Amino acid sequence: MKLLSVAVGLFSLVPLVASTCSDPVIRKEWRALNTTERKSYIGAVKCLQSKQGISSSIFAGVRSRYDDFVAAHINETDYVHFVGHFHAWHRYYLAQYEVALRDECGWAGGQPYWDWTLDATPDTFLNSPVFDNVTGFGGNGYYIDTANDASVDIHVPGKLGGGCVKDGPFVNYTVTMGPNNSTAYNPRCMTRDIAPGFASAKLNSTMVEWTLSADNYLDFDIRAEGDVSIAGMTYHAGGHKGVGGDTGIIADLYASPSDPLFFLHHANMDRVWWTWQSADVDARLYQVQGPDTKFAYPFDFYGDVAYRNVTLAYEMHVGSLASNGPEWIRIGEVMDTKGGKLCYSFDKTA
Ligand SMILES: *[C@@H]1O[C@H](CO)[C@@H](O)[C@H](O)[C@H]1NC(C)=O
Ligand SMILES: *[C@@H]1O[C@H](CO)[C@@H](O)[C@H](O)[C@H]1NC(C)=O
Ligand SMILES: *[C@@H]1O[C@H](CO)[C@@H](O)[C@H](O)[C@H]1NC(C)=O
Ligand SMILES: *[C@@H]1O[C@H](CO)[C@@H](O)[C@H](O)[C@H]1NC(C)=O
Ligand SMILES: *[C@@H]1O[C@H](CO)[C@@H](O)[C@H](O)[C@H]1NC(C)=O
Ligand SMILES: *[C@@H]1O[C@H](CO)[C@@H](O)[C@H](O)[C@H]1NC(C)=O
Ligand SMILES: *[C@@H]1O[C@H](CO)[C@@H](O)[C@H](O)[C@H]1NC(C)=O
Ligand SMILES: *[C@@H]1O[C@H](CO)[C@@H](O)[C@H](O)[C@H]1NC(C)=O
Ligand SMILES: [Cu+2]
């Protein structure tokens, strides 16, 4: 009965829904991995960063396979944020990254997630295992006073860094693209600008519970995405601006995947969405709402813009993430993490 209603709603997607996923990879929290596994994951990320990209003839800044992902995100940013398919696009994007780590760089697990609620107090945030300088992604950047920096449009309160990361496996990693929507070659160090108090307020369990209590996808998505003011930011911006502050690359809406922590942050967001879907599978597994156009949400940033509501048949452009991957994918193909184009699950609900 359940399968029937799903099938009727999906029309031509029926064969995809029927595809099997009997052995999903399991995504675990970073601290559930042992030391060997953590180092192995970091090694796989570095492997992607050293392999040749497939989109370097399209995007001048692409210097590695990892950069394919950065460039695709930069190029699609204006079409996949503050829209109804925000979660769906990022779900597929992360799944492609997970496949690349596994198939091209030997990672044996699922894409790890960072459950930031476990670190969300101002005093403990910087001690998160994800910032460890040996078994994590390194910590903060050197302090830079950005109070009078005219290129900073929104100042994050309590930021403690700003410059190149000081330690860890990515200390000399070269970011090649950005800022903003530029995919030109622009080599520079990886920056972080962690703001423990701000991050904790936006990433704590109260924020997650409030988002999970949304009773339809439209509200869930609006709560998760938040708005662009410091007060209106929620856990999506909490991860980006809480770690990236004023000048950290992960705070750049476009080039944010340049910091490997992007993928752990978004994996946790995907887990919160999956948790929300799982709480009422019949009603929510295939529920999607919201506009197809940025800023058409009733946030009123820039006034009204013309839009249409997305449906399961809406086609999202994903770009050159895999040499054999599709350029376009329908929302309905990525609603179920264990069906359609996907085959992964999580060790725990949020
Ligand atoms: C870490 O986990 C792997 C399984 O993924 C296991 O083979 C290995 O023995 C573990 N290492 C330690 C030090 O516990
Ligand atoms: C990037 O965008 C932000 C926000 O719109 C703006 O403040 C900043 O000046 C831009 N940076 C560059 C280099 O264009
Ligand atoms: C890592 O951090 C610890 C504690 O701050 C420090 O003693 C150690 O030198 C650092 N190691 C590296 C490789 O940066
Ligand atoms: C990073 O690069 C600097 C300058 O080239 C070098 O002195 C330093 O040893 C490098 N650090 C690591 C951890 O590779
Ligand atoms: C990049 O952003 C600038 C400034 O907002 C805009 O004029 C330009 O059209 C954008 N380019 C692309 C490729 O989206
Ligand atoms: C989360 O942060 C908000 C804002 O600072 C605060 O009101 C709330 O009590 C916090 N929740 C927890 C569980 O600490
Ligand atoms: C989009 O859907 C909302 C309900 O979720 C509805 O209020 C709105 O009128 C729809 N907009 C369009 C352009 O169809
Ligand atoms: C960049 O994004 C636009 C909008 O989705 C798309 O039409 C275009 O094909 C993309 N370019 C590449 C090279 O992926
Ligand atoms: Cu994004």
Automatic annotation (TrEMBL):
Keywords tagged on the record: Metal-binding, Signal
Highest taxon of source: Eukaryota
InterPro entries assigned: Di-copper_centre_dom_sf, Tyrosinase/Hemocyanin, Tyrosinase_Cu-bd
Stretch forming the signal peptide: 1-19
Domain spans labelled Tyrosinase copper-binding: 259-270
Keyword Membrane in annotation: no
SUPFAM superfamilies hit by this protein: Di-copper centre-containing domain
Metal-binding keyword on record: yes
Annotated PANTHER family: TYROSINASE, TYROSINASE FAMILY MEMBER
Record's protein name: Tyrosinase copper-binding domain-containing protein
Organism in which the protein naturally occurs: Phyllosticta citribraziliensis
Lineage, broadest ranks: Eukaryota, Fungi, Dikarya, Ascomycota, Pezizomycotina
